[in-house]
Amino acid sequence: MTQEFVMTIARRTMEVTFLVAAPALGVAMIAGILISLFQAMTQLQEMTLTFVPKIALTGLALIIFGPWMLQMLLDFMVEMLSTYPQLMLQ
């Protein structure tokens, strides 16, 4: 196993991790910004006003993007398992 091969696997792992996490984190970030703007305009500082919508929207994003996220993880796992025999030959 060469250093280049290990770095390739590490880079690919980071890419897949970012792509799988991006939908949920993006929705939570956008919801947080919009809720913060709403709170600043209305001067409402209620904690549940920030928590409940962000949780609901993040859950909705996971439901919508879940099949795509699972497919990305499955493709990555198949890719990793298919390179396993090459590791045994080196």
Q: Can you give a write-up of this model?
A:
- This protein is an all-alpha fold and 90 residues long.
- It has one domain.
- Helix 1 runs antiparallel to helix 2.
- The longest helix has 43 residues.
- It is elongated.
Shape: elongated
Radius of gyration: 20 Å
Tell me roughly what share of residues is in helical segments.
over 70%
What is the average per-residue confidence, as pLDDT, rounded to a whole number?
90
Number of helices: 2
Strand content: under 5%
Q: How would you characterize the largest beta sheet?
A: none
Structural class: mainly alpha
Distance between the termini: 6 Å
Low-confidence stretches: none
The topology string of helices and strands comes to HH
Overall strand count: 0
Domain tally: 1
Topology:
Layout: H1 3-42, H2 47-89
Helix pairs in contact: 1-2
Short description:
This protein is mainly alpha-helical and about 90 residues long.
What are the salient characteristics of this protein?
single chain; 90 residues; mainly alpha; 2 helices
